[in-house]
Amino acid sequence: MTDELLRVESVDKSYGDERVLTDVSFEMDRGDVTVLIGPSGSGKSTMLRCVNRLTEIDDGAIYLDGDCVTDADTNVNDLRRQVGMVFQDFNLFSHLTALENVSLGPRRVLGKEKAEATQLAREQLEQVGLGKQLDSYPAELSGGQQQRVGIARALAMDPKLMLFDEPTSALDPELIGDVLEVMRDLVDQGMTMLVVTHEMGFAREAADELVFLDGGKVAERGPPEQLFENPQHDRTAQFLRRLTELHG
Ligand SMILES: Nc1ncnc2c1ncn2[C@@H]1O[C@H](COP(=O)(O)OP(=O)(O)O)[C@@H](O)[C@H]1O
Ligand SMILES: [Mg+2]
């Protein structure tokens, strides 16, 4: 077993005539936190979606734990079981309680008994600070609480890798902190995380590597200190200066 968990190798992706990703490569070891940054439309969401095959790549390859996930004969359901995803807009089932939202995957996908899945879901929700909201419906929860349900739901599948696509972008400023705190706990627990975010405070302290996507290409990558203190390209410096002004 090597330490490498994710390898993205020369990935190209177009939508029709529009080239969205060009020759994108990066790697993550187990326990790494990689933060993908870049302007709107630079291909960040597309890159995440390629990892769990919500979007198909045109060229290159992606490996998870040594297996090529972009092969035509890859079992996509197996893959998605191993990769948790947290979306900007939470994507919860509105007719299910927090507990039901979190226990659904373990029951339906992992085939766990109701009692076991419920217990697992309760523990996950307690971990994200929602032990008192088990029976609440999404509409009864704040955005920050809904997003924490979303994180608990992904964690209940015991994923190898967690993908976060701007998990705090839809939240009121005062609710962002609670979600970032849950993400920091996950980092401390050694979870491997690929995160798209504009929260530069989180990126600076939590990321092992920043990958700056610009126009669908990796413009620069490296440890946060390097990109913040000593960027190799003017574009990186400009982008980070602007983001830091906006999101500290
Ligand atoms: N399903 C799709 N069909 C067509 N074009 C898309 C689709 N998804 C994204 N795009 C285009 O791909 C480009 C990159 O989008 P995206 O990956 O969402 O960027 P980001 O997340 O960095 O803002 C954009 O120009 C967007 O309009
Ligand atoms: Mg996006």
From TrEMBL:
GO BP term, pick one: amino acid transport
GO cellular component terms given for this protein: plasma membrane
One Pfam family named in its UniProt record: ABC_tran
Alphabetical list of InterPro entries matching this protein: AAA+_ATPase, ABC_ATPase_HisP-typ, ABC_transporter-like_ATP-bd, ABC_transporter-like_CS, MetN_ABC_transporter-like, P-loop_NTPase
Main location: membrane
Protein origin, superkingdom: Archaea
Its membrane topology: Peripheral membrane protein
GO function terms (MF aspect): ATP binding
Keyword tRNA-binding among UniProt keywords: no
Keyword terms: Amino-acid transport, ATP-binding, Cell membrane, Membrane, Nucleotide-binding, Transport
Localization per Swiss-Prot or TrEMBL: Cell membrane
Segments forming domain ABC transporter: 6-240
UniProt keyword annotation of Zinc present: no
Family, as annotated: Belongs to the ABC transporter superfamily.
Name recorded for this polypeptide: Amino acid ABC transporter ATP-binding protein
Natural source organism: Salinirubrum litoreum
